[in-house]
């Protein structure tokens, strides 16, 4: 692949990472916007407002790369329901949980703590599989349809920014 082609098309692996970031930031943006309504402290409100602006800018910047993503097959309409958002939020939490336990284990010197963390890591992996399988079976996470996966991200990001 020559340099011109690389500049017009994202690689598959970076497209999937882009997808993960857009989905994670979109869910976070919705949660931060909802949380802002509950905050009484003016300083914390300012922090939340800055976070909202930064997340919106991040999404706008990331979405600019979507036209460069590879597009196999055909795309279809995104199904956006309340359960869809909540399931996606749980999936993002499950992924973060697996990563956090894996990192914590590499920092653990005490064997008894390592065993507990390993047990909880395995539990987190099973939890991730449980929510992923649910979402896949319900058509909420089309992991084998890249076009639909990316269109879902765009729709979620737009909804979060509106």
Automatic annotation (TrEMBL):
Record keywords, A-Z: Capsid protein, Sporulation, Virion
Record-linked Pfam families: Coat_F
Keyword Cytoplasm: no
Signal peptide stretch: none
Principal cellular location given in the protein's record: other
Top-rank lineage group of the source organism: Bacteria
One GO-annotated biological process of the protein: sporulation resulting in formation of a cellular spore
PANTHER family given in the database record: SPORE COAT PROTEIN F-LIKE PROTEIN YHCQ (PTHR39183)
Family: Belongs to the CotF family.
Protein name, as recorded: Spore coat protein F
